[in-house]
Design brief:
22 helices, 521 residues
């Protein structure tokens, strides 16, 4: 596509501004030296707006923007289920999970597992998560983000990959989570603005300048087959979104695991001033999730009319960007870059947190706070460099990359979900039961993939979850009951009450979701 001088200037202004803002918000009071709590959990001082914005910034990256717009082009509105069901999941996380984590002053997910099950489970999952975050998440965002930059701006892909990684590392390196979270309100604001601009211009063009409402009605009337949230078995995309399973099946397992037990997501809420502040943050994120399809799916739907017969659906978003006037193109491109670097920075910070607090601090038990922060910064740089080096070998082309991410994480998601849910809500769950779920998840997922390849991915996740749950319960019942005091996390007497504002917000989310599904069932 290429960018005009004004577009490049807009992008340059964004990069300088976000870097300087990150350094400014990361500053400490005179005489206070940044400690591990400051660096990895922002001093447990994050306000609700930073938590909510940072949850979305960590979640949305370029491959999701371009990929979901492409899915909107190919599949239709049904792909929005991922976003809309996440909104309800966030409400559940806020009410039932965060009180447990914050009451127990949890820093990391492996720390919770150690206090609940013992060091073996912590070590196993810490090493696993480090591998996933570096070789799957970090590498995929770098690679797919560089593809997006290349497609939109024409920049050499390897140069784009290196620049994205180094910039994300540089702006977050000094301040840690505080630098990431407190700048994410700008990143998300830019992301929302960019998506709304694309959607507005696309719908207005469909209506020949008569406005977005007219454009939307015309779009829905011309391609009604794209406005179905629940796909039937005769749909060519049923295997991707298997009908009712998006409401009662495996999508719940994937969402609960991702939003409730994923370090680079939940870390924002763990850094809250209080449980109430964390709950306000997840409510804010839930409402942003309701908005996301307007920003990242609707452009793909509009492209069905504006750019029919695209050879590759994922070209929809870049092709729409070509229609933008100079200046606006730079702004929307900056939004795309913001999504990439914000998501990268989140992964980098979580890798540093898990390595430093769950592995290094357990080996070097007398390490000073200053030393731990220094280790975290070194790990951040190393993680980015590894991601840059392995991105192309692991993720050589876009289709394989998507499959690689889905299949690898899907093998372990059911087991992780079982381990945490039983650990939080069933005192009888044992370390042996937890390890049974972890191993069973990988083995059963592989077996189903080999023997039942026609089984939709989402259904496979749901079935494996139920089998792992049964296995973990049986093994836990067969093992001796935990000795009083052996479980070092507080599970009884947790206050699950929520404010009137939270309850009203939860009801609004439920009503909006019900209206959406009733309208486009």
């Amino acid at each position: 596509m290429g960018l005009a001088t004004l577009d490049i200037a807009v992008l340059g202004f964004y990069a300088v501004f976000i870097f300087l803002l990150a350094q400014w918000v990361s500053r400490e009071k005179v005489g206070h030296e940044k400690n591990a709590k400051d660096y990895f959990l922002a001093g447990r001082s994050l306000p609700w707006w930073a938590i909510g914005a940072s949850l979305i910034a960590a979640n949305i990256s370029a491959e999701q923007i371009i990929g979901m717009a492409g899915s909107g082009y190919a599949i239709g509105l049904a792909i929005s289920c991922y976003e809309w069901m996440a909104a309800l999941t966030l409400i559940i996380v806020g009410k039932y999970f965060l009180p447990i984590f914050l009451e127990n002053q949890i820093y990391t997910m492996p720390q919770f597992l150690e206090q609940r099950y013992g060091p073996s489970v912590r070590l196993t999952l810490a090493v696993f998560w480090l591998g996933v975050y570096v070789f799957v998440n970090l590498a995929s965002i770098l690679w797919l983000g560089s593809i997006a930059v290349h497609a939109v701006a024409g920049v050499d892909q390897m140069y784009a990959l290196i620049a994205l990684g180094l910039f994300a590392c540089a702006y977050s390196l000094f301040g840690g989570l505080k630098a990431v979270a407190l700048t994410d309100i700008v990143q998300v604001g830019l992301l929302v603005m960019g998506g709304l601009i694309i959607s507005y211009l696309a719908l207005n063009q469909i209506a020949d300048g008569q406005g977005v409402v007219a454009g939307f009605h015309q779009l829905a009337a011309n391609v009604p087959e794209k406005f179905k949230l629940i796909l039937t078995k005769d749909s060519p995309f049923y295997k991707d979104l298997p009908g009712i399973s998006v409401l009662v099946g495996g999508l719940w397992v994937m969402n609960v695991s991702y939003w409730g037990f994923n370090q680079y997501i939940i870390q924002r809420a763990l850094a809250a001033k209080s449980v109430r502040e964390a709950q306000r943050g997840v409510v804010f994120a839930a409402f942003l999730k309701l908005l996301m399809p307007v920003i990242i799916v609707l452009p793909g739907l509009a492209a069905v009319m504006l750019i029919p017969n695209l050879p590759v659906p994922d070209q929809a978003y870049p092709e729409l960007m070509k229609m933008l006037p100079t200046g606006l193109k730079g702004l929307v491109f900056a939004a795309l870059v913001a999504a990439i670097v914000a998501s990268l920075a989140s992964k980098i910070n979580s890798v540093a947190t898990i390595f430093t607090l769950d592995l290094y601090a357990h080996i070097k038990t007398n390490a000073s706070q200053h030393h731990l922060v220094a280790v975290g910064r070194i790990v951040s740089v190393v993680a980015v460099l590894i991601g840059i080096v392995v991105a192309k070998p692991l993720l050589g082309n876009f289709d394989q990359a998507f499959q690689y991410i889905q299949e690898f994480t899907g093998f372990f998601t059911p087991g992780i979900c079982v381990i945490f849910l039983l650990g939080m809500f069933w005192a009888r769950a044992s370390a042996a039961g937890a390890l049974t779920a972890a191993i069973g998840s990988a083995v059963l997922s592989l077996a189903f993939k080999i023997w039942l390849p026609a089984l939709p991915f989402m259904d496979r996740v749901g079935v494996v979850f139920l089998l792992c749950l049964a296995g973990a319960v049986l093994v836990s019942l067969a093992a001796p009951a935990a000795i009083p005091g052996q479980i070092k996390v507080k599970l009884k007497g947790i206050d699950y009450s929520t404010t009137t504002g939270f309850n009203i917000a939860a009801l609004v989310v439920l009503v909006v979701l019900s209206a959406l599904y009733i309208t486009w069932w």
